[in-house]
Amino acid sequence: MKEVTGVILAGGKSSRMNFNNKAFALINGQKIIEIILSKFFSYFDETIIISNEPLLYSSLNVPVYTDIYPRLGPMSGIHSGLTYAKHDASFVLACDMPFIPVEMIDYMLERINGYDAVVPEIDGFLHMTAAVYRKSSLPVLTENLQHKKLKMSLLFKELNALALDEEELKRFGDKTEMFHNINCEEDLIKAEKIAGRLLL
To answer: What does the alpha-carbon distance between residue 105 and residue 39 come to, in Å, rounded to a whole number?
Structure first.
């Protein structure tokens, strides 16, 4: 077990899922949140959920914390996750990304020394909600939240952060599958096909 905290961000409204909570959407009969938790429980010695609706997750037997700066998007969730995490390093993951491989997480953790964050970059997009952060990120996060500077791309520039490119990440799987997230019914149908191939 890694002495690292797994942080699941479960804060956003599922607007394109008709406001159904996508953390509880089913992929081949299994809730997305349960797929992620199973992965985290096998790898991290601490797992926490960040949500402003903690009662929704009470049956999962996982500590749930609310945003310290509410209604300020994913940056607020990352800030709260790092604040409540017992370890210096945390892997932060949005609740709608069930296919991130633990081998890739392990590689990201290997690269964190000397950095505040390690972030995958695919097709020019920084996946800030599938990244490793250290508590040294907290001053920048706090400053940005206090001044409502909420653009995640700017956060990356302000941190001492390392971007991992596709060449480094392709050994861990198909980029379109690893970073597939569920925002609508079409995404869910594709996720079921991916899960069938991965035997989830």
So the answer is: 11
Q: What is the pTM of this model?
A: 0.94
Structure tokens at 194: 């991916």
CATH number of the domain at 186, please: 3.90.550.10
Tens digit of pLDDT for each residue in 77-111?
A: 999 999 999 999 999 999 999 999 999 999 999 99
Per-residue pLDDT tens for 11-61? 755 444 444 688 999 999 999 999 999 999 999 999 999 999 999 999 999
Q: Tell me how far apart the terminal alpha carbons of the chain are, to the nearest angstrom.
A: 21
Count of domains forming the chain: 1
Please state the separation of Cα 17 from the chain's center in Å: 19
Element (H, E) at 76: helix 74-84
Is residue 183 helix, strand or coil?
A: coil
Express as a percent the part of the chain with pLDDT over 70: 94
Q: Who's near 137: CB < 8 A, 6+ residues apart?
A: 78, 82, 116, 117, 159
For residue 13, what pLDDT is reported? 53
Number of Cα atoms under 13 Å in the Cβ half of residue 171: 11
Buried b (16+ CB within 10 A) or exposed e, 49-75: bbbbeeebbeebebebbebbbeebbbb
Give the structural domain span for 26. Answer: 2-198
Name which of 101, 12, 85, 93 is nearest 51 in CA terms.
Answer: 12
